[in-house]
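Long-time lurker, first post. I've been practising inverse folding by hand and with some scripts of my own, and I keep getting stuck on stretches where the structure tokens seem ambiguous. Below is the full token string for one chain I'm working on. Before anyone asks, I'm not after the true native sequence, just a reasonable design that respects the backbone. If someone could post their per-position residues I'd love to compare against what I wrote down in my notebook.
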């Protein structure tokens, strides 16, 4: 894989035509972002079959006033399109175990919980996370090129 195809930051912007007519700086239209990269961390790979790397989604954020308006769903879908373009078979992300809103969003997008942080992480003041995986469709052309 080309090294330049290992990281991307995807941005969601407000599509309101009135905003486009105003003289706002481009960053003022940003309503959500997500970082994604191809990784090969062993702790995640042991949950995946037949691959040496995976597409990792991190740092997803949506402005509070735009939550529950499908912005997160659109960002996740854009990640999936990119993952398929980069010929990845799995997408992975981590979510806080007690964040039911985020976990609900990810579950609706097709992610499933495959593991949890060990219980002792709370002893050191950290929030417990879950690892969620989404299997991507594998096309014959992809299999032949791998």
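-- Answer (accepted) --
I ran through it position by position. Result:
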């Amino acid at each position: 894989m080309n090294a330049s195809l290992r990281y991307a930051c995807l941005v969601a912007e407000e599509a309101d035509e009135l905003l486009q007519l105003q003289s706002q700086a481009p960053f003022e239209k940003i309503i959500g972002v997500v970082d994604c990269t191809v990784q090969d961390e062993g702790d995640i790979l042991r949950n995946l079959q037949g691959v040496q790397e995976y597409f990792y989604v991190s740092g997803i954020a949506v402005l509070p006033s735009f939550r529950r308006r499908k912005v997160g769903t659109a960002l996740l879908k854009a990640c999936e399109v990119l993952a398929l373009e980069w010929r990845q078979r799995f997408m992975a992300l981590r979510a806080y175990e007690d964040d039911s809103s985020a976990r609900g969003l990810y579950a609706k997008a097709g992610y499933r919980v495959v593991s949890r942080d060990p219980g002792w992480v709370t002893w050191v003041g950290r929030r417990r996370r879950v690892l969620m995986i989404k299997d991507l469709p594998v096309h014959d052309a992809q299999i032949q090129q791998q």
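A couple of notes from the structure itself: The beta strands are 7-13, 30-39, 54-62, 90-96, 112-116, 129-135. The domain at 3-145 is CATH 3.40.630.30 (Aminopeptidase). Happy to go over any region you disagree with.
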